[in-house]
Amino acid sequence: MKRIISFAATLALGSILFSSCMKDEKPYTKPPAPVSEGNFEIQNDRVSIGDDYETQVYFSLTTGEVASSKFKAWDIAIANKQDSVELWLNGGKKVLVYATGLQNFAAITNIAAATGDKWRYDDPSGIAGQSGLGLLADHIGEVLLVDDGEGTYFKMQITEITSASYKLNVGTITDVTPGVVELERDENYNFAYYSFIDGVVKPEPPKQDWDLLFTRYRYIYRNYPTEGSDFPYYVNGVLSNPYKTQTWSDSTKLYEFYDVLLSEAETKPLYNDRDKIGFNWKSANANTAQYTVNKKRLFLIKDQNEALWKLRFVNFYDENNVRGTPQFEFQRLK
To answer: Among 14, 39, 113, 162, whose Cα sits 20 to 30 Å from the Cα of 54?
Structure first.
């Protein structure tokens, strides 16, 4: 893991991230628009993550909102697929992991040896090989320290990986005797989730039921402001389903949504990165903290059923001008 930059650099980044000339975003009314090829209707929907951003929402482009939960409901998640098993952290909650290199659970009772530049975090792309810890098979029996992002430290050992479950030893940093946890590997779901406070949890619906996740997550600015520095930045945005879902994000922010047809959409490269839609379809005014959405930023989504969709965001506010309600237009192209 690269070193994290200082508070002074944080202030510098803030001046880049926030514009001083943004207008307050107003509730959006969709104008009349033609139906494009394929006779698929243009749809308008919205989800509510709350003005405190505490809620996360799972959304299907076919059926609408599928489920919601608190984004802080979990600390760690382990992929249920049978190959390349990795541990993923709740970045939105600021969870970190530290690999001690030791296997004696009782011998570690504080974080004195856990130096700052060795705490690990995941890449927000969420693609295989980009977790902070890497393959779990390389850490069987190793004592891992976990910072839950809220001031509490825990210990964890992966003791066994089978085709049916994951077995873990868990406890607080001072525990000598661990608790034993077994996480079922249910491949109807992307991940097996665990909370150090609440135990086994299931915040995510079945993987075949949804396409997009509106949530809080950790984005990493690499090499900012100097080579070798990482800047973790906590954002509210959209992650795609890691199960057979691909996306494309427009960087020009110049597309007319209604003019983009299938013929053009099919020329765009699609990616497995979960954060391609991400967070910067909106910008904030540093003085007023009001968000403005760029309505000319286009996104393409190929779902697990091979359907291709186009999407744009049109607002981040509800009819009462309360933030935390992303509104968006989308249309199936094929």
So the answer is: 14
CA 202-203-209 angle, to 5 degrees, is 100
User: What is the enclosing helix (H) or strand (E) of 236?
Assistant: strand 229-240
Cα 56 to Cα 213: distance, rounded to the nearest angstrom: 7
> Which domain covers residue 173, as residue numbers?
75-202
User: What pTM was estimated for this model as a whole?
Assistant: 0.89
How many C-beta neighbours within 10 Å does residue 254 have?
10
Q: How confident is the model at residue 21, as a pLDDT?
A: 35
Nearest C-alpha neighbor of 88 from the set 134, 19, 53: 134
Residue 28 shares a structural domain with residue 177: no
Total domains, the chain: 2
Tens of pLDDT, residue by residue over 26-41, are: 444 444 444 445 679 9
Domain end marker among 183, 202, 221: 202
pLDDT, position 67: 98
Backbone CA torsion sign across 150, 72, 221, 111 = positive
3-state SS assignment for residue 283: strand
What average pLDDT does the segment 76-96 reach? 94
Domain boundary among 202, 224, 259: 202
